[in-house]
Write a structure and sequence with these properties.
about 250 residues, alpha/beta, Rossmann fold, six-stranded mixed sheet, four-stranded antiparallel sheet, 10 strands, globular, binds adenosine-5'-triphosphate, nucleotide-binding, ATP-binding
């Protein structure tokens, strides 16, 4: 069975600084693989390389069997990417359904299928009842779920989620997690970047902890905790790096 993500010694430099440093990462079909690390650890840079938006400085990355540099078009057809920063401004005067249908057309869903597919993905993320409300009336959690729905429109083999619950309240986070878990049950492969250890713990089959662009340690959440007798992934991070995963806000 081919790997959905197969990354070998991937690096990205910006001038003198190295954002991603010889990272190796794999994901098999149906796995939820996490990248856990603090702000600036290199998660988004890694994701942008896998999504073909940023060329690597060195190393190789294959997604769904295609090289992200030489076969970027083949990769793009097979991935959904839900970005960290969502700017809903351009969509404020649209309903959730209208936004989803526009994105469906952009994602090359055949015209005859657009309405049905939009309704399906809205149902998947629990937004059917709110589909005809304006996006500007959505809560933060609903907007995130709408982004998730749009990432699913073209039935990607790999869904890439960058901080899917950043800035959400506890209840909304649990709601988003429920929907991500449901997608996994349907066999989707997910790459999740987060700096929330509870999110990584709850959702990931395997994760790689990164710091300063480099792998610190990787394994299942249970393995990582058991190896050092830690109760939480925060503690795992602290023990391996000597500093906290999340700096306290000043
Ligand atoms: N276009 C760029 N030019 C220069 N430096 C960059 C660029 N993009 C990212 N970096 C640097 O690379 C490092 C990794 O950033 P990256 O955004 O990948 O981290 P991250 O783990 O995703 O953090 P966050 O959780 O804040 O998104 C940072 O030091 C950042 O300043």
């Amino acid at each position: 069975m081919g790997m959905i993500i197969d990354v070998e010694r991937l690096s990205r430099r910006f001038g003198q600084s190295t954002a991603v440093d010889e990272l190796t990462l794999t994901a098999g079909a149906g796995e939820v693989v996490g990248l856990l690390g603090p702000n600036g650890a290199g998660k988004t840079t890694t994701i942008r390389m896998l999504a073909t938006l940023l060329p690597p400085s060195s190393g190789t990355a294959r997604v769904c069997g295609f090289d992200v540099v030489r076969a970027a078009g083949d990769v793009r057809l097979r991935i959904g990417y839900v970005m960290q920063q969502v700017s809903p401004m351009g969509y404020y005067m649209l309903t959730g359904r209208e936004k989803t249908e526009i994105e469906a057309a952009l994602y090359h869903v055949p015209r005859k299928r657009v309405k049905a597919r939009a309704a399906e993905v809205l149902e998947l993320v629990g937004l059917s009842a709110h589909a005809d409300r304006l996006v500007q009336a959505y809560s933060g959690g609903m907007q995130k779920r709408l982004e998730l729905a749009c990432g699913l429109l073209h039935r990607p083999e790999l869904l890439i989620l960058d901080e899917p619950t950043l800035g959400l309240d506890v209840q909304s986070r649990h709601h988003v997690w429920d929907h991500i878990r449901q997608l996994c049950q349907e066999g989707m492969t997910v790459l999740l970047a987060t700096n929330y250890m509870d999110e990584a713990d709850r959702l990931c089959d395997r994760l790689t902890i990164i710091d300063h662009g480099r792998e610190v340690v990787s394994g299942t959440p249970a393995e990582l905790k058991a190896a050092i007798g830690a109760d939480s992934l925060d503690e795992v991070f602290l023990r391996h790096t000597g500093h906290a995963l999340r700096e306290e806000a000043a």
